[in-house]
Amino acid sequence: MEILKNRVRPFVSGYLVRGEGQVYHSVQMNSNIAFQEVYVDNLAIKRVLLPDRSEGTRLNKLLIHNMSSKTIETEMKVHYYMNSGHLMPFVYYSPHYEALVACINDMYYVMGGMSQEGGPVQYQTNRHDINASTADNTAQAVYQPLTKNSAGWSLTFNLRLFPHDQTYMYDWELSQAELVKLEKEHIALRQLFKN
């Protein structure tokens, strides 16, 4: 994902899904393609970039299909990394809004999401914690609520898939210069997808 409507983002994003054997697999999606499908172990993952008229808004829907005959409980991380050559943001987790907020120069970015199991269950505000959590090294992952000069951040969602069934997950990004407006838009999206 490299373009957020008509504005070039200073970061890129992707997905990490925990597969069999507790190993995380990177799932990279091209932001300019409206529909993509990838396979990880017994999961078929389809990403749909949903149309939105608002500049500064990106909304993705993931459909995850369990192709096996057993129930799968797993995690999906939506992760973000800074492009090289850009200033590192101040990133913090807002427990009230269940979202990550990145402050970059004069822009705010709010990142959140919702799965069939609910909102994010874990967050990382720096690259060290992301790497530690994907290596199953929880002793080194401190999950700091804020990080100055962050090079990467992520939100983690629980997913539960019954045999030959599917679940869904939404993730979104909102950006503009006024944080209060972003927080209101974020609450509206959460309410929309909660029902």
Q: What percent of the residues sit in helical stretches (DSSP H or I)?
A: 10-25%
Q: Please mark out the parts with pLDDT under 50 across 5 or more consecutive residues, or reply none.
A: 1-6
Instruction: Using the alpha-carbon principal axes, give the shape.
Output: globular
For the termini, the CA-CA separation is 27 Å
Helix and strand run: EEEEEEEEEEEEHEEEH
Largest sheet entry: 8 strands, antiparallel
Radius of gyration: 16 Å
Strands side by side in the biggest sheet: 5-6-7-15-11-10-9-13
DSSP, total strands: 15
Structural class category:
mainly beta
Strand-residue proportion: over 45%
Q: Would you tell me the overall average pLDDT? A: 81
Number of helices: 2
Describe this protein's structure.
By secondary structure, the chain is mainly β. The protein has helices at 127-134, 179-194, and strands at 3-4, 7-8, 11-18, 24-27, 35-40, 43-50, 57-66, 72-82, 90-94, 99-104, 107-115, 122-124, 146-147, 152-161, 166-176. The chain is built from two helices and 15 strands. The strands form three sheets. The protein has an eight-stranded antiparallel beta sheet with strand order 5-6-7-15-11-10-9-13, covered by helices on one side. A five-stranded antiparallel beta sheet has the order 4-3-8-14-12, covered by helices on one side. A hairpin with a 6-residue loop joins strand 6 and strand 7 (57-66). It starts with a strand and ends with a helix.
